[in-house]
Design brief:
Layout: E1 10-13, H1 18-28, E2 34-37, H2 53-68, E3 72-81, H3 102-115, E4 122-132, E5 138-149, E6 165-167, H4 179-185, H5 187-199
Length: 203
């Protein structure tokens, strides 16, 4: 695949989650890479049948690149809670029910943690970014950020489980942080740094 990302490239973000698309597009904007979402192109969401973040990210990226003929980036990410043996993990969205209601999902995680004793607040976010070409070639990059869970949720910025997660070394949840601050330290930003170090060509 070489280094297919360069200024002027149109990149398909293989997601219908507009919060996630906005966050990823903001990361690429300084590099002159324009992003379009799978939702905007009317592409279907493939079923996430993988048993890992890498498998699901690669599945989504390859499906989007093949269907569109564009270079495609997919993100698979989730919250891993130590007291729950790493759950919700790859099933993070499913904890929100059929409507992917993250207020419901956050309450479900809190209830499960309380049922497990409620003392261990350790958690981490994991993100895998997979970059796929229309020929099916794919590369994956992983980033993690560690921290602790809080209750009740705090802040209405970000998306997903952000309002209940405080990253190490900070006092605000991701839900309370401005996007620029979150982008500097997040799991997605760490995966993005690895991606750009491998796949970006400024020339």
């Amino acid at each position: 695949m070489g280094r297919p990302l360069r200024p002027g490239v149109r990149l398909l973000i293989a997601s219908h989650n507009e919060g996630k698309v906005k966050e990823i597009a903001a990361l690429f904007a300084p590099f002159g890479i324009a992003c379009v979402s799978a939702g905007a192109l009317g592409l279907p969401e493939p079923e996430e049948t993988g048993d890992s973040f890498v498998a699901n990210a690669e599945l989504k990226a390859v499906a989007a690149a093949t269907a569109s003929g564009l270079l495609a980036l997919a993100d698979d990410s989730g919250l891993e809670v130590a007291a729950l043996g790493g759950e919700p993990g790859v099933h993070s969205a499913r904890w929100g029910g059929p409507s992917k209601d993250f207020a419901f999902a956050m309450a479900a995680v809190h209830a499960a943690r309380q049922a497990a004793g409620g003392t261990d607040a350790a958690a981490n976010f994991t993100c895998v970014l997979a970059l796929a070409a229309p020929d099916g070639h794919v590369q994956a990059f992983e980033g993690k950020v560690f921290g602790a869970l809080v209750w009740p949720p705090r802040g209405n910025k970000g998306f997903g489980y952000d309002p209940i997660f405080v990253p190490e070394g900070h006092t605000e949840t991701f839900g309370e942080m401005e996007l620029e601050r979150k982008d500097a330290i997040s799991h997605r930003a760490r995966a993005f740094a690895k991606l750009m170090a491998t796949a970006y060509d400024a020339k």
